[in-house]
Amino acid sequence: MKKIVSLILMFVMSGLSILSCASNTSNPTPHSKTPKDRTMEIKLSDKKILIAFFSHTGENYGVGNIAEGNTHIIAQIIAEATGGSLFEIIPEIDYPHNSYDKVVEIAKQEKEKKVRPAIKGDVKVEDYDIIFLGYPNWWGDMPMPVYTFLEKHEWNGKTVVPFCTHEGSGLSNTEKYVADTCHGARVAKGLAVRGEIAQNHREQANKLVKSWLSELEN
Ligand SMILES: Cc1cc2nc3c(=O)[nH]c(=O)nc-3n(C[C@H](O)[C@H](O)[C@H](O)COP(=O)(O)O)c2cc1C
Question: I need a surface site. Which of 30, 126, 140, 145 has the fewest CB within 10 A?
Answer without folding.
Answer: 30
